[in-house]
Amino acid sequence: MTPEQLKASILQYAIQGKLVEQRPEEGTGEELYQQIQAEKQRLIAEKKIKKEKPLAEISEDEIPFDIPESWKWVRVQLVTCLNPKNDLSDDLETSFIPMALVDDGYRNNHSFEIKTWGNIKKGFTHFADGDIGIAKITPCFQNRKSVIFRNLKNGYGAGTTELSIVRVVNELLSREFLLWFFKSAYFIDNGVKSFTGTAGQQRIQKDYLAMCVFPLPPLAEQKRIVAKIEELLPLVDRYAASYEKLEQFNAKFPEDMKKSILQYAIQGKLVEQRPEEGTGEELYQQIQAEKQRLIAEKKIKKEKALAEISEDEKPYDIPSNWIWVRFGELGSYKKGPFGSAITKSMFVPKGNGAIKVYEQKNAIQKDATIGDYYIRREYFESKMKGFEVFPGDIIVSCAGTIGETYVMPDDFEQGIINQALMRMKIFKPLYIPYFLIFFDFVLKRDAKSSSKGSAIKNIPPFEILKNYLVPLPPLAEQKRIVAKIEELLPLCERLK
User: What angle do CA 213, 215, 219 make, to 5 degrees?
Assistant: First the structure.
């Protein structure tokens, strides 16, 4: 249960007579009702309040829930005075309260500006110390902008016309109990049902407050209910702080768990090591042999040797049968042509030997079939041959959505990468799924720039990229690591 739901439940229990016990010695709601009526008649006779129009009897259909036998259903207008007027000297300093100065939610606070009565007596809603103000316009009404006015300048004030004012009759009602009733879900939900007006300017019906059926307990019980509410709500606020932390934890937990799994994977802690599977060093030598073969066959260019890895560079311990290698030693990397090398004016319709231009969306959507940009074969052969992609090549998005990867399948159209892609050719027998786990987790999301130590927000320049360190396990262990990750990550998704 959310803190908001818990507060709503407390108020609902309160107005249903379920929050505190009933005590026969405290009298009944009927007796209190008769006292209020007698007092209102006295005030009418003394011309202190105006006589009100009779209201319809409460029908059985209007009663929303059961209340204790000692309580009585009444209409709000019958036990209060609504929207009273102040008769004050124009030069008297009073409080002015626009809607913005009334707190919302389950609070009971307001502030005010000081203005002379002559400046605010017309065109605004009147009130006095002890009156209850209730917002009547959306969304303030639903947000529970309601308050007991206290400590007003010289005891009086005026404010926004979007307030309805309720005044108790000579302390025969607990204004705090009334306020909690006005903040209850029952009062709010029924008020919303009565809304009239255009979108954004909807208000409760003019007679909603007057006609609203109100559960009237004995006065002493009202005060005990208020005391219990004021005891419980701070506890809910404390619960809310813990609840928020728990919600934040729950929201982060699946992603944190995923990161932990991947971190364990690249540290050699996700599966056990098996001596019979060989070593990372043996695999590294096989990769280097494949690299030399490709160079000899002029399929890739020979590159400048990368620096030896120092002990200070190694970010964490790895198993003894693993080794650290540099990213640039595991594959060949090429970014797409300069923007001026492929322009819209060069595109031709598909067919007649045209060569497809692969885009970022191919990497992002993991689909080689989408896209309809093509260039002439002649231009491909003369200028763009070096950007051609082959089955097993990895294309990487390099702008906007950074670091999305796609392994080109066996059955795709001959084509090249555009300026927003990078092509990676990974040397055999390195297991591509393991390589992509490392690339996605370490390089795209969590790697640190070797020069500045800041989180990477773009595909780094090759001189930085090629020098990243990669923990290299034996090939068989790579496959077992990937299988374990594929088993565990769906479980993380289920936690969301």
Answer: 135
